Amino acid sequence: MDLPAMGIVWLTIAALLGLAELIVPGVFLVFIAIAAGITGIVTLALPSLPLVGQLLLLGFWSVLSVVFVRRWYLNSPIESADPMLNDRGARVVGEIVTVTEPIDQGRGRVRLGDSEWLATGPDMGLGMRARVVSMDATAVRVEPLPPSLTSDAA
Fold it and tell me: On the chain, which terminus has fewer CB atoms closer than 10 Å, C or N?
């Protein structure tokens, strides 16, 4: 393959990677696409650049684009209307639950939203209300509500 055609190959690879990023978004292929595009432009400008140099250029621009965008994201965080959207445990902390199976010897069940969860915490009777204080992989940790809040919460 003649050397000027390599620039077109790199630009085609960049376009295909960009298209793949649109089809299967993961914010990773775009960095390699940027690097392939720059490599293609440089290869068109310097057609005698050997393949090893082109690959080094691709690697350099890939790393540089990742570092640049990572720094930009850290300095300009994206504000979210629901910052705990993907943190299920953090979302349930503070929720008021009802004991559906008495918590005896530290284990029982509570109603959280529209489902029942395994619960750990101090012994509590059926129907008592509690507050979620944390969540692990299989259970919510609860603590009883103070008497002043149990009659107000409904």
Answer: C
Q: Extract the residue ranges of the chain whose pLDDT is less than 70.
A: 1-4, 83-85, 89, 149-154
Q: ∠ CA 61-65-69 to the nearest 5 degrees?
A: 175
Question: Looking at this protein, which amino acid is placed at residue 56?
Answer: L
Model confidence, pTM: 0.52
Count H helices, E strands: the chain? 5, 5
Looking at residue 60, its pLDDT comes to 96
pLDDT of residue 33: 94
Tokens of 38: 């720059």
**CB proximity list for 33: less than 8 A, separation 6 or greater:** 13, 14, 15, 17, 18, 21
Which pair of structure tokens corresponds to residue 151?
């009659």
Angle, in degrees to the nearest 10, between helices 3-23 and 51-75: 30
